[in-house]
Amino acid sequence: MVLVQKKSEHSSSSSSSIDGRIIAVKDNICTTDLPTTCASEMLRDYVSPYEATVVQNLKRAGAIIMGKTNMDEFGMGSHSIYSAFGAVVGPSPPEDPQPRSAGGSSGGSAVAVAMGMCDAALGTDTGGSVRLPASYCGVVGFKPSYGMLSRLGVVAYANSLDTVGILGKDHDPRDPTSLSPETRKRLRENLSKSSYNKASLRIGIPTEYNVTELTPAVREAWETTAQTLLSLGHRITPISLPHTPHSLSSYYVLAPAEASSNLAKYDGVRYGHRSAADRSSPDNILFAPTRHDGFGAEVRRRILMGAYALSSEAKENYFIQAQRVRALVQSDFDAAFVQPNWLKMRHKDKRAPPRDGGQGRVDVILAPCALSAAPLLSDVRAQRSPLDAYVNDVLTVPASLAGVPAVSVPVWVEGGRNPEGRPIGMQVMTQFGDEGVLWEAAKILEGLGTMKACEGR
Amino acid sequence: MAPLLTTLARRCVTQARHRYTGTATHRLRLSSPLGLSLRRYTTAREDLYPAGASTAEFQLEFKKAYKTRHKERHQHEREPNTATDGPQSEWIITAGLEIHAQLNTGRKLFSNARTTHTAPPNTHIAPLDASLPGSLPIFNPAVLLPALRAAVALNCTVPPESRFDRKHYFYWDQPAGYQLTQFHAPLATDGHLLLFPHDGVTHTHSGNGNSVRIDIQQIQLEQDTGKTLASPPNSLVDLNRVGSPLVEIITRPFDCPDAAFPALVMRKIQSALKAVDACTIGMEWGGLRADVNVSVRRRSTTDEDDWGAPPRYGQRCEIKNVASLKAVQEAVESEARRQIALLEAGETVQGETRGWDADKGVTRRLRGKEGEVDYRFMPDPDLPPVHVGKALLDKVKQTIPLLPDQLLAQLTGAPHHLKEKDAKTLMLWDEYRASAREAGVVYYYKDAVRRLLDMVVREAERERMGLQEEFGAVVGNWVVHELGGGLAKEGIAWRENPVSSKQLAELVLFVVMREITGATAKTLLTRLITAPSPDPNFIRTTVAAEGLAVVAVPEDQILDIAEDVMLPESDVLEELRGGRAIPKRQKRLKSWFVGRIMARYRPSTTTTTLNAYI
Predict the structure, then answer these.
(1) Share of chain A above pLDDT 90, in %
(2) How confident is the model at residue B382 (pLDDT cuts 50, 70, 90)?
(3) Distance separating alpha carbons of residues B100 and B83, to the nearest angstrom
(4) Which residues on chain B are in Cβ contact (under 8 Å) with A319?
(5) What is the pLDDT of residues B553-605, one digit of tens each?
(6) What's a single GO MF annotation on this record (chain A) (predicted)?
(7) Hey, which of A430, B16, B37, B417 has its CA 20 to 30 A from A18?
(8) Cα–Cα nearest to B223, from B171, B152, B266
(9) CATH fit for domain A22-250+317-452, picks 3.30.930.10, 3.90.1300.10, 3.30.990.10, 3.10.450.50
(10) How confident is the model at residue B91 (pLDDT cuts 50, 70, 90)?
(11) Do the Cβ atoms of B386 and B163 come closer than 8 Å?
């Protein structure tokens, strides 16, 4: 079902590139004219009294909000099957009768774009929720630097990781995590001195991303892409991001911890679902029936994990430890890039100009986005443990922990280990705030066309 | 549901109006039982100090002050407990206070909604206050000023950076499921305050020196919760208060000279917060609440011997949410008795959280150790740290109003020389906030004294003046007795006082210069109150125009009149002259003559010469 809304009358900038474009919005982003359910029973009928800043900005620029897209409940999932409204089914060619995973949690948004229902869609990316579905559905998925886009009106999953997947320029004074105008200026000024050459980018291949779980088709696509780029005159450098193996566990401590806190507000008192059992029996533990009925199994699981990680007995070993890992992951990235992390620099820090690439530092990092192409939904459902799905995020969470921007771009490889010719998502990551070189690299990847598989090493 | 809420709200509004404007009914209730507590003013010089002010009405202006005094009396009325009171008692009570006070700001801590106590329920709520999905907190920097004034008033260290943490627990008056507070990095740390004898600390309290020191562990910013209005079988929730800014002030444990002591500490903190305009709402609105930790231990010689070693405190219990000074005093008293009884019976005190049942006068177990809430503290991932620069802190230090102790010292010292009691009366009149507002009584008083001294310096070139140290006290008397009494008699509120400080200063100047009599001065003041004059030199002008000045009567003329009056009364004269009468009788006889002579002459005649003559 497609909802189309008339073009807003007070759209000011008719020259905007978004003017007249049709945009879909993930259902955890607040809209006043459509419900905002987060795909949860808890908020099945909830309509927000105010609009998210990103939606306001889109409308102001002349965009047409087409409707809201299905997702994993509260953004928790990797296949968009944990929804109170039923699972999202990924796009597949007519000759393929088997339904495939759309990826999660922004699966609905990715499918809407892949099927041509809209020009673009808003998603949210906490640990890969835009990039993974983009990878599975063969579309471009962008996670900006943390704080680049306003989170006001975006229903929080994990505040310190949440980002909205689309590009924006402006500070939102109503979002405390939105980068300030001063910070934006500092980033812009420093990064404009960037020394990259777009005809010959310094591209890093992180060895730690070559995990054993990587399917041969993905590994092949990664190698082929790197080889092709090399042949086009770019410089390919193997690099190390040593703390990558720990990022997944760090993420699955931190994100549920923040989620357990964020979701404490859903108690059925002021809005949303309220269980009848919560009213009748005075012996009931108040709120427990409401929260049990209103949340799906995956959300409950993450709330319990998060509450445990923050409990006084476990906090030091889990929450605090995970924060330390997060800091190490960030420093991995800082050590890899030519550009320093200007966010961490003091305002008047007279740091030396960007270091050259001779020390093995790079402009961008290239890695796959997912372990495999889109899996069959039947295979996903057959997984023994719900935790198996968490592994899918292993390649996307490091950028989330570090807050750096990343874009997933589909590549096509033929004649190799991917006989079905399914798109494979390649991920480009750059230094914090360095979206400029990120887009240069993404454009180069888009221009590669269908590549011939190179010989495996 | 709705009508009940409205009724409750309306009742609250009405109460507020009564409280702050003082309606007639209110006055009637207060006038009789509290009239007794007004002090009697001792007067040093009859002609300088107008006596016999009508104090009954005057007091009405002070109803707040009386309430405080009343509480104070109550504190001293408590039955002494020999087991815990004084340095010889067998048991030592240790207490610790966690005081929650509402900061004086117009908007909430993290949202744009107004702070209010009187608005109809659920009318001042931003999306964040109701924890709507997608809402985000934005720190309100206006909260910093009153909070920093509190920190400076309590002599705290303010680190350059503080942070907010989430404290999780489920309760329907806590919409987010957590409270934003400062657990790991609070706004201010390591402060202290001193209690003096004038704070109600008896001499048994202050074993060494003149004051008792209470250490403050930290001051943190946090959000208030909503209010639950009971309406069985439902609980109604009013979210207006959600997110209002609080400071929590945590003291370090302190030994109590007696069970009334923690309430004195609480009152002292309260008056400091009020004085610096950090917190203006009293306990009656739930503006100040405390959690009180109490433990007891046997006094032993080791306490005195182990220099420097921290005392081995007994097992403590926490009494939650005690909402008045009286309740703090009674709860500590009752809890200490309970713990002592347990220990004396050979049992042990369990560490637990207890509540105060004011009706039964006992503390009651709420939950034990096993039932303790795990708050799962987590740094808030949305809010950046709060930075307090040196410039801001310096500015607060420079502009902070005087604390009650400082103001008291100022009023009792040069050049004011007020008696402690009179100074406190002025301060109470201002609710301890005199120096914060130019419209205050203390400000007016100080201004009048300053003007008087200026005038005296100028006048002194013509006249010899030797009584300067008393001028402050004289002005104090005129402000408190004559002006205060006169305003009360006319039903005029202080803020509508028509007598300027310049006019009052000139009036007092004329009195101390003996240019007019006390009686004339009183009449002039009454005229100024009932028929205000914009003329700053009203006194000088009127005295000149109406010839009210004391006439310097030639001595022989006085003698003539005196002889006329006195000679016919030879019996009386004989009694006076012969010195047979006792001094008191002699004085009365003298006065009798003076009165007779005065009756013959003009009322503006000074009596001093006559007294001397006789």
Answers:
(1) 63
(2) very high
(3) 30
(4) 378
(5) 666 666 777 777 777 776 777 766 666 656 677 777 777 777 776 666 654 45
(6) ATP binding
(7) A430
(8) B171
(9) 3.90.1300.10
(10) confident
(11) yes
Q: Collect all residues with Cβ–Cβ distance below 8 Å to A145 and sequence separation of at least 6.
A: A163, A179, A403, A404, A405, A432, A433, A435
Residue A92 corresponds to which tokens in the numbers above?
């597949």
Distance CA B337, CA B546 (A): 71
Q: Parse chain A into domains and list their residue ranges.
A: 22-250+317-452
Query: Helices B538-546 and B501-512, interaxial angle, to 10°?
Result: 50
CB hemisphere CA count around B262 (13 angstroms): 35
Q: Coil, helix or strand for B206? A: coil
- Which secondary structure element, helix H or strand E, spans residue B336, and what is its range? helix B325-344
Q: Is A129 a catalytic residue?
A: yes
Q: What is the mean pLDDT of residues B21-45?
A: 29
This model of the complex carries an ipTM of: 0.89
Sequence-distant (6+) residues with CB within 8 A of B503 are B528, B533, B536, B538, B539
Phi, psi values for residue B178, rounded to 5°:
-155, 160
CB spacing of A154 vs B383 below 8 angstroms: no
Name the average pLDDT for chain A: 87
Q: What is the DSSP letter of B416?
A: T
Q: Which of B434, B452, B550 is nearest to B500 (CA)?
A: B452
User: From CA A276, how far away is CA A289, in angstroms rounded?
Assistant: 8
Sign of the alpha-carbon torsion through B170, B174, B175, B179 = negative
Q: What share of chain A is helix, strand, coil (3-state, %, to 5)?
A: 35, 15, 50
Closest CB to B376: pick one of A159, A287, A307: A307
Task: Please tell me if residue A90 touches chain B, with a CB cutoff of 8 Å.
Answer: no
**Contact between residue B127 and residue B341 where contact means Cβ atoms under 8 Å apart:** no
Tell me how close the Cα of A116 comes to any Cα of chain B, in angstroms: 29
The encoded tokens of residue A319 equal 């929450």
